[in-house]
Design a protein that fits this description.
The complex is a heterodimer of chains A (247) and B (236). Chain A has helices spanning 2-17, 21-45, 57-84, 86-93, 97-127, 133-160, 163-181, 185-191, 220-244. Chain A has one domain. Chain A is mainly alpha-helical and 247 residues long. In chain B, 36% of the residues lie in helices and 26% in strands. Chain B has a domain at 1-77 and 182-236: P-loop containing nucleotide triphosphate hydrolases (Rossmann fold). In chain B, strand 6 (151-155), helix 5 and strand 7 form a beta-alpha-beta unit. Classes of the chains: A mainly alpha (247), B alpha/beta (236).
Chain lengths: 247, 236
């Protein structure tokens, strides 16, 4: 039983390893994040009045752009099964849909976790932000945030089952929508609870939390708890769709 | 080795449309059973339900007494080739077989064996989308044979094949049945069935029209084609 489950996980890892979108999206994730951090560091190096800034801000802001590639990776892992027709071979080989889903989720999450730790470290290094206990806490939070975002996208893709739809829906709504509209105070009351926003406090991107103009209704780790909820709901939804619908 | 497939009262409805209408038949080992019907008769839907890919709205399929989803390592019991493509175009042929083998704990050495069995040794390193239609079909057959299964379900295996490929599949199916396997092959090509099948299951508009040994069917109608046309005309 256990060996069969691990066999299915290794099959899923092989699938990830043997398509080109995996190296491309993961490379884009780390290169874009660290590259933006380096650029940001260059442009801020000679800036005046740095004392008002959170020194960790430029170390984590690039991740909000780089994460798009990780989200694409998570979504493609399952939507690609449908666009290529592989889903039929997959379910013929592993007809227990729960087993198939969990194995794929485990493989995708494991890869995403490793990629996130590497990317957070590279981005932090490129930003030349001062290392501290606070920076470590933010880094751990960022790696968890990114891994959860990937799993969240995986669940949404399992519900939607179409690459163009899932990317066309997730990318603008989550990232441009909540970041852009989030600057309007009234709308921020609501958008602060959107999945991508929940990680902003722990990553020092939400502004000074002791300032009522910026303060959110939740703390850094509660924010990640909210994202965990989003992720659980999305993954459950994806599972129900996989279970019910014809392949 | 001898495995029987039982299809009982199988039904698939999409809203008001009935794609498969209370279909019952048994597929027996040691012979090639041809699954014949015009396009849209419900052959592919039936085969997908046999693999638990599509959920029946009624009835059931038993393979050696079990539901497909209850088979522990299904590739060692049933090998399937579906009409629709089921390979990622960017993945190399042997990688496609590798993950399939891993998922059912089959030895990695089987990948080379089946590639060689279907005559794809030289192109195993190609990405699936760079394979010709005939090669892609052979890759699908390699995947079906991976677990050395006693049952083979093949949906329109000769589609898009050149005469040499058609001849090869015909020989392969005959050989697999001669080894005592249960071979179930769908086609809408009567000439092909006439030279490949031992037994016929004919459906039209989701309903069973005939479940007969091929020689009997041909004897009573003059030819397979005449019999098929008479049956489907009568069913309309």
């Amino acid at each position: 039983m256990i060996s069969l489950a691990s066999a299915v996980v290794s099959a899923e890892l092989t699938k990830l390893r043997t398509v080109r979108s995996t190296p491309w999206t993961l490379a884009a994730f780390v290169v874009v994040s660290a590259g933006l951090a380096a650029l940001l560091e260059l442009s801020l190096r000679n800036a005046e009045r740095r004392e008002n800034w959170d020194p960790l801000f430029p170390a984590f802001l690039p991740l909000t752009i780089g994460q798009l590639a990780l989200v694409v990776f998570g979504a493609l892992a399952i939507s690609g099964e449908y666009s290529s027709g592989t889903i039929r071979a997959s379910l013929a080989a592993v007809p227990r849909r729960g087993r198939f889903y969990l194995a794929k989720l485990a493989a995708v999450t494991a890869v995403a976790a490793v990629a996130s730790v590497v990317t957070v470290a590279a981005t932090f290094a490129a930003s030349r932000a001062p290392f501290s206990g606070e920076a470590l806490e933010a880094s751990v939070g960022a790696a968890i945030y990114l891994t959860l975002m990937c799993a969240f996208a995986f669940g949404v893709a399992a519900m939607v089952r179409n690459t163009a739809l899932v990317l066309g829906g997730l990318l603008p709504v989550l990232f441009l929508g909540s970041q852009g509209l989030g600057n309007i105070p009234v709308i921020r009351e609501v958008t602060q609870f959107l999945p991508d926003q929940t990680g902003w406090v722990v990553m020092h991107l939400a502004g000074p939390q002791d300032d009522p103009r910026w303060a959110r209704d939740y703390g850094p780790w509660t924010g990640l708890g909210l994202l965990t909820l989003w992720t659980v709901v999305s993954l459950l939804g994806g599972y129900l769709v996989l279970r019910r619908r014809d392949a | 080795m001898t495995v029987v497939i039982e299809v009982r009262d199988l039904e698939k409805r999409y809203g008001r449309t009935v794609a498969v209408d209370r279909l019952s038949f048994t597929v027996r080992p040691g012979r090639v059973t041809g699954f014949l019907g015009p396009n849209g008769a419900g052959k592919s839907t039936t085969m997908r339900m046999m693999l638990d890919l599509d959920r029946p709205t009624g009835g059931q399929v038993r393979i050696d007494g079990s539901r497909y989803r209850d088979l522990d390592r299904p590739l060692t019991k049933v090998g399937a080739l579906l009409e629709a493509k089921s390979t990622h175009g960017g993945r190399r042929a042997y990688h496609h077989l590798s993950w399939l083998a891993q998922s059912n704990r089959l030895p990695a050495s089987r990948v080379r064996e089946v590639l060689s069995l279907v005559g794809l040794d030289d192109v195993g390193g190609r990405r699936a989308k760079a394979l010709s239609l005939g090669m892609a079909q052979r890759l699908g057959i390699a995947a079906a044979l991976l677990g050395d299964p006693p049952v083979l379900l093949l949906d329109e295996p000769v589609n898009g094949l050149d005469p040499e490929g058609v001849h090869w599949i015909r020989g392969l199916l005959r050989a697999l049945a001669a080894e005592g396997r249960t071979v179930f092959v769908s086609s809408h090509l009567m000439s092909e069935m006439e030279v490949t099948a031992d037994h016929l299951v004919v459906i039209h508009q989701g309903r069973l029209l005939a479940d007969t040994p091929l020689p009997e069917f041909v004897a009573s109608h003059g030819s397979l084609e005449a019999g098929f046309l008479a049956l489907t005309a009568g069913a309309r």
